[in-house]
Amino acid sequence: MLALLLVSSGLGGSAAALAARVVTTAWSDAFDSYNTSLWLKSDGWTNGAPFAVGWRADHVSVSGGRMAFQLDNVPCPSGCSGMPYASGEYRTIDNYGYGHFETRMQAAAASGVVSSFFTYTGPTEHPPAPHDEIDVEILGEDPTSVQTNYFVAGVGGHEVVTALGFDASQGFHTYAFDWVPGQITWYVDSVAIRTVQSSSLPTNPGKVMMNLWAGRGVDAWLGPFQYTGPLHAYYDSAGYTPSGTTKPRGH
User: Is residue 2 part of a domain?
Assistant: First the structure.
């Protein structure tokens, strides 16, 4: 299922004002502080259905080796782009192509929510591109599994759910994928869990993104969401290593 497709033009003064570069240098962020040369906090807009959240920068915190999203109902709907809930999203300023992408994440556990790590580009980005996406998603209804997926020119439907052997909401684990021409391999804690080889895979560089969101109208996928109080997803690192380099990687 899609992680990001309908991006509001309300992005305005942040990411939409930047023509993203394609960067081919490695980086790693331990989230000791908010690195404004690398990241943006999505703020003041919503994706629309099936998302039930508006993105707010004040729902992202970064300090002391941890980045956190908070999903709540403050100050919604008037302060949440008309949505009933607010939450956080982190996105790189620049675009990244083939390489190794990874994060250490502790997901939220609740029916109807998704904690994610993914790459994305699409027609609403700057410059516009076909919608290509590679996903790692923990569905809060069952945080003992991970869903992997990808989109090529807006076409998805490649979801695979894999048992983790642990509860992703109870601690940090490393989620990663290698993306090279004609192949994507996903990893959890350095163990390969899925490989796809195809002539029809994403080819367009994209932003590295993370978010926490509640769904609406997708109960068959995520389960129903019922708000009972704030939810959190935590990240203690993220990084990128371009293809063809020898930097040590998490597998």
Answer: no
Query: What are the tens digits of pLDDT across the range 165-215?
Result: 999 999 999 999 999 999 999 999 999 999 999 999 999 999 999 999 999
Q: Tell me the catalytic residues.
A: 133, 137
Domain count, the chain: 1
Instruction: Write down the residue that tokens 């009933």 correspond to.
Output: 84
Q: By residue range, what is the domain housing residue 205?
A: 9-242
In the DSSP assignment, the letter for residue 32 is S
In the prediction, which pLDDT does 127 show?
82
Cα 196 to chain centroid, rounded: 20
Q: What angle do CA 116, 108, 221 make, to 5 degrees?
A: 65
- Specify the CATH number for the domain of residue 129: 2.60.120.200
State residue 7's pLDDT score: 36
Strands (E) located in the chain: 22-23, 27-29, 39-41, 53-55, 60-63, 66-71, 85-87, 89-92, 95-96, 99-106, 113-121, 132-139, 145-151, 160-163, 173-180, 183-188, 191-197, 207-214, 231-242
The larger pLDDT score, comparing residue 247 to residue 130, is at: 130
Q: Residue 248 falls within a domain, yes or no?
A: no
- The sign of the dihedral angle between the CA atoms of 21, 128, 156, 196 is negative
3 located within any domain: no
3-state secondary structure of 208: strand
Average pLDDT over residues 232-249: 84
β partners of residue 185: 178, 195
Residue 246 has pLDDT above 60, yes or no: no
Is residue 1 in a domain?
no
